[in-house]
Write a structure and sequence with these properties.
The chain has helices spanning about 10-25, 30-35, 45-55, 65-85, 85-105, 115-125, 140-155, 165-180. It is mainly alpha-helical. It has one domain: Rhomboid-like (Rhomboid-like fold), CATH 1.20.1540.10. Helix 3 packs across helix 5 (about 85-105). It is globular. The relative contact order is 0.13. InterPro entries: Peptidase_S54_rhomboid_dom (IPR022764), Rhomboid-like_sf (IPR035952). This is Rhomboid family protein.
Length: about 200
């Protein structure tokens, strides 16, 4: 029996986030704030600041913050990576990072770092696991209701958590879920699926 690197994007993302936090803990100065966060004071003449629009999802404020995100990323990521493939996962993470980063710059005065937007993208995307085109699964509706209720309650509390990143990440996951919803062939009484014209675009 051997250990397999079963979800390369998910595992690599997680290991990079761990490495960033460790380097920040042993380095003098504000390593993460300079390279792995986004905020209103961006210098658009600097290539580094454009890079931060994507790298901020690797930064975390504390070990607890990192472990809270990794628990869900390592749970959902491998399942989603197997379903949508590694290249699609890279694209989804990059889009989530960019949209949450830009949203924070436009609508918030605080610095943003952490993979919470990626986590909520994965949560909403996972609710589409058994969806078919033309259908909205009840499980997705329930997840959205619970998710929005949680964010509304959190928004009323004075904390340092970015509800905007959660909402944007969840919206990105929902969009990807609808876009990638598979068309499934109807199953006849004998248990075999019937081929239709809709399934011929291989």
């Amino acid at each position: 029996m051997r250990i397999r690197y079963n979800a390369p994007v998910t595992l690599s993302f997680s290991l990079l986030a761990v490495a960033v936090l460790i380097i920040d803990m042993v380095s003098p100065g504000e390593f993460q704030l300079r390279l792995f966060s986004v905020g209103p004071a961006m210098n658009w003449s600097s290539f580094t600041d454009y890079l931060r629009l994507f790298t901020h999802v690797l930064g975390h404020a504390s070990v607890e913050h990192l472990l809270g995100n990794l628990a869900l990323i390592l749970l959902l990521g491998p399942i989603l990576e197997e379903k949508y493939h590694s290249s699609a996962m890279v694209f989804m993470i990059l889009v989530t990072a960019l949209t949450t980063g830009l949203g924070n710059i436009i609508f918030s005065d605080a610095a943003l770092l952490g993979a919470s937007g990626v986590v909520f993208m994965m949560i909403l995307l996972a609710s589409f696991t058994n969806v078919r085109r033309g259908e909205i699964p009840l499980s997705f509706i329930l997840v959205v209701l619970i998710y929005l209720l949680r964010e509304f309650i959190s928004a009323l509390e004075a904390d340092s958590i970015s509800q905007l990143a959660h909402i944007v990440g969840g919206a990105v996951g929902s969009v990807f879920g609808f876009i990638h919803a598979p068309s499934r062939s109807p199953v006849n009484p004998s248990g075999s699926s019937e081929t239709t014209e809709e399934n011929h675009d291989r």
